[in-house]
Amino acid sequence: MARIFITGSSDGLGSVVAKRLVANGHSVVLHARNAQRAEDATTACPGAETVVTGDLSSISETKALAGEVNKLGTFDCVIHNAGLYRCSFRKTADGFPALAAVNTLAPYILTCLVNRPKRLIFLSSEMHQSGDSSLEDILWTQRGERGWSDSAAYCASKLHNVMFAKAFARRWPDVKSNALDPGWVPTKMGGSGAPGSIDAAVESYVMLAEGQEPGAQKSGRYFRPGKREGSPKSVSNDEKAQDRLLDICAETTGVKLP
Which of 65, 87, 89, 158 is deepest in the core (most CB within 10 A)? Predict the structure, then answer.
């Protein structure tokens, strides 16, 4: 049996995956943004070990969440599933758009501060292929709300997630760190008309979370639905770019890479 922590698991794919992993006999800790969402998470997945709360758009709350997770002990796998897609600029108290905070800063903070697991999964998207590879103004402090594009911000953040997977795989050889594109599936985020298969997406989540199958023995890779390995944008393999992304996140959050 594995212990697995899943961010953003009060609904959508996070909740579906949590239920599948519980059914497979694993101990799953859920995450929700606030108390009401925590109730929703528990109702949807009553077999979960517990649920922790924290708003990932806040640097301070994300740091506090890491502390709460560590109080529960060490996990075999952490799935960075939480993410925002179509949304307004929504400037946070830290001065960044919520999408950039949740999709880029939060997985960095949690990976650095949560006790190191055996496996890391960073949720990406095929849309990362369109992400800005320059790493200029990744937090939109220069362009601001006037220059905001939720599509451009999302694509860039999903590229960052692939780069995180590869960077941590390289720096932590004892950890299997991979990126996962679940596909365009019919969830609240994807919309009812999405053509992808939820079952195929869940297969990839479960394979990487359980860590038993040959594909899960790899690290620094990019997986797609149906346990298939894909080819990410070439810049994601650039170690200097990876390190620059980590440095930007460290400087912004005050969290140093272990």
Answer: 158
Q: Which of 19, 63, 158, 176 is catalytic?
A: 158
Residue 158 annotated in active site: yes
Examine the residue annotation and report whether 91 is marked as an active-site residue of this protein: no
Q: What are the residue boundaries of the structural domains of the chain, listed by start?
A: 3-253
- Contacts of residue 97, Cβ cutoff 8 Å, sequence gap at least 6: 89, 90, 91, 139, 140, 145, 148, 153
Residue by residue, pLDDT tens for the chain (258 residues) are: 999 999 999 999 999 999 999 999 999 999 999 999 999 999 999 999 999 999 999 999 999 999 999 999 999 999 999 999 989 999 999 999 999 999 999 999 999 999 999 999 999 999 999 999 999 999 999 999 999 999 999 999 999 999 999 999 999 999 999 999 999 887 777 777 777 799 999 999 999 999 999 999 999 999 999 999 999 999 999 999 999 999 999 999 999 998
CATH number of the structural domain 3-253:
3.40.50.720
Catalytic residue among 19, 63, 85, 154: 154
What span, in angstroms and rounded, lies between the C-alpha atoms of 107 and 105?
6
The reply to whether the predicted model has a pTM over 0.90 is yes
